[in-house]
Design goal:
The protein has about 240 residues and is of the alpha+beta class. It has helices at about 1-20, 25-35, 40-50, 55-65, 90-95, 105-125, 130-140, 150-160, 230-235; strands at about 70-75, 75-85, 100, 105, 165-170, 185-190. The strands form 3 sheets. A two-stranded antiparallel ribbon has the order 1-2. Strands 3-4 form a two-stranded antiparallel sheet.
Length: about 240
């Protein structure tokens, strides 16, 4: 409801401000607003109107000043910003999707999410997408202050599978899979030649020498969520 209320408030403000526009500003604004989440390049506005170039630029500047429109970086051409009405969010074709911030690929987010997925799979032996996402929502807010989506977690897991770092398997309901319903898709570390699992720096996980490891469960009194040593390891 808060998101809808905010959007409605912006629309009401835009309506009140648009009433004060000059004829040229209103023409330019209506063209930009009509392109919705795709936006429009300044050169295309020029081709669609008979407004002199200097007056069109002045109109665009005034619309930006009144916060009726905004400039958005086009991932397909970073030097070519598009103009968009403020009430619309740019489409994925413009921004590049969830992995991009201001037109730049967020490599730190990708690396951090990959690292967390690997560590959780190592700790739990098998993990589901929902389980990883749930952990991030509960205790991973410091690592991901903006949060992550289920789609992002799934994409990272697919990449890890393609890189042969983890395996995608169906739960049998037994052994390591006891906590996962039978048939549900889950992930475990891929075994390399000789049966060794490639874990790199993650071999220092404190759980391996913890005397209470057998009593540790995701929702128990002893769990990764309230373990200060495990949290420090994840932060590292």
């Amino acid at each position: 409801m808060s998101v809808l209320a905010g959007k409605r408030k912006r629309q009401d403000l835009a309506s009140s401000l648009s009433a004060t526009l000059s004829n040229e500003e209103r023409v330019v604004y209506n063209i930009i607003r009509g392109r919705k989440e795709m936006g429009i390049w300044q050169g295309d506005i020029k081709r669609e109107t008979n407004i002199p170039d200097s007056l069109m630029k002045k109109s665009i500047k005034m619309l930006l000043t009144k916060t009726l429109i905004k400039e958005v970086v086009n991932i397909q051409n970073k030097s070519k910003k598009v103009l968009m009405a403020v009430e619309f969010e740019p489409s994925k074709e413009i921004t590049g999707g969830e992995w991009y911030t201001e037109g730049k690929l967020d490599t730190q987010l990708i690396e951090a999410l990959s690292d967390v997925c690997m560590k959780l799979i190592l700790r739990q032996k098998v993990a589901t997408r929902e389980g990883i996402l749930d952990w991030i929502r509960k205790v991973g807010s410091e690592i991901f202050p903006g949060g992550v989506s289920a789609g992002q977690v799934e994409q990272i897991l697919k990449v890890l599978v393609m890189e042969n770092k983890v395996q995608e398997v169906n739960s049998t309901g037994f052994g390591d899979f006891a906590s996962v319903p039978v048939g549900e898709v889950c992930y475990r570390l891929a075994k390399k030649t000789g049966g060794e699992v490639k874990v790199g720096a993650m071999a220092s996980i404190p759980c391996g020498v913890c005397p209470r490891i057998n009593a540790c469960t995701p929702d128990g009194d002893i769990s990764p969520i309230n373990c200060q040593y495990y949290q420090k390891w994840l932060d590292f």
